[in-house]
Amino acid sequence: MSETTNNSEKIDAAIIVRDLHRSFGRQEVLRGVNLDCPRGEITTIVGPSGCGKTVLLKHLNLLLRPDYGQIIIDGIDVTRLSWRELDRVRDKLGMLFQGGALFDSLTVFENVAFPLVEKTNLSQEEIAARVAEMLRQLGLQGMENKFPSQLSGGMQKRVALARALIHRPKILILDEPTTGLDPTRTRSIHELVRHTQQDFGLTVVMVSHDVPQVFNYSDQIAFMHDGRIELAGPVSYVMSADNENFKRFLAGKASGEDEQLPVNGASAPG
Q1: How far apart (Å, rounded) are the C-alpha atoms in residues 152 and 46?
Q2: pLDDT digit string, tens, across residues 30-41
Q3: Distance between CA 220 and CA 202 in Å, rounded?
C-alpha cells in the first residue's frame, strides 16, 4: 500500500526522513520510511508491535545507520557523516530511553549532572547551578540526594527527562516514556512532556503505545505499519483519514488488544 501523508502545505521540518531502509540479516524491518517532523512540535509515532517503530527511533537518535536512505537533522544529512562527525549532531539531541536508564549508584543530582561532567568544561559551580535550575523546572526540588530506588516510577521518569534536557538540546527523542506507569502517572508524564516542549521550544519525536490518549498531547501523528509510515499529519487529519490499517489498529487498542502484525511474515523489533 502506498503511503498516505498530509502534504497540503510545506512545513519547517527539524527532521526529514527519506526512503529509509534497514534489514537485519534477511529480515527487512524498515522498508522505505518517509517522514517529516515539524520544528517546535510533538510528532508521535504509533503502530502495532513489530512494525519497526523502535528501529526507526534508533536511526533518528544516531544509534543505527540505515542500509540506504536519508536522515536530515537540522539541515545536516547525517547518513553521510563519519561516526566522529556525528558528535556535533548528537549535541542537538536529547534522549529519554524506555526504562529511564538512570544510574542506580548515583544520586538524582549526579544523574542529571552526568552529561555536563562528561561532555563539557563547565566548573562545578556552573554545573550545580544548571542542575538546580533544571530540577526546579521539572518539580524535583529536594530530591537531589535521593537515589533512583527511592523514587516512584513517575519521579524516575522526571529525573531521566531532566538529564536528557540538561545540555539544552534542540530535539528531544522519547522511547515509550510512560512504560510501566499507571494511568494517572501516564497522564502526568504526557502533560510534563507537553509543558517541557513548550517551555524549551523543543522539537519532540516520541514513540508511544498510549493510543489514543497520547493524541491529546501531540501535534502530529505518524502511523507506522509493515516497516513504512502509512499515514502522517496533524492529529485531526490522521483521525479523519480513510486508512483501513489505522482504523484496525485503533479498534484493537480500544478493545485492549496488543495487535501483532509481523514484518515480512516474521516478528520484528519495535
Answers
A1: 26
A2: 999 999 999 999
A3: 14
Helices (H), the chain: 53-60, 86-90, 108-119, 124-137, 153-165, 183-200, 235-240, 244-254
CA distance 233 to 236: 8
- pTM summary value: 0.86
CA dist., res. 15 & res. 254, Å (int): 31
Residue whose C-alpha is closest to residue 181's, from 205, 159, 155, 163:
155
Residue 15: which of 44, 35, 45 has the closest Cα? 35
In the beta sheet, which residues pair with residue 222? Answer: 45, 232
- Cβ distance 262 to 268 under 8 Å? yes
Nearest-10 crossing angle of helices 153-165, 124-137:
130
**And the C-alpha cell for 105?**
549508584
Q: Tell me: cis bond preceding 212? Omega within 30 of 0 counts.
A: yes
pLDDT at 255: 55
How far is Cα 117 from Cα 107, in angstroms, rounded to an integer?
14
Which pLDDT belongs to residue 8?
42
Answer whether residue 261 shows pLDDT above 90.
Answer: no
- Kindly state the helix (H) or strand (E) to which residue 117 belongs, with its residue range: helix 108-119
Distance of alpha carbon 121 from the chain centroid = 28
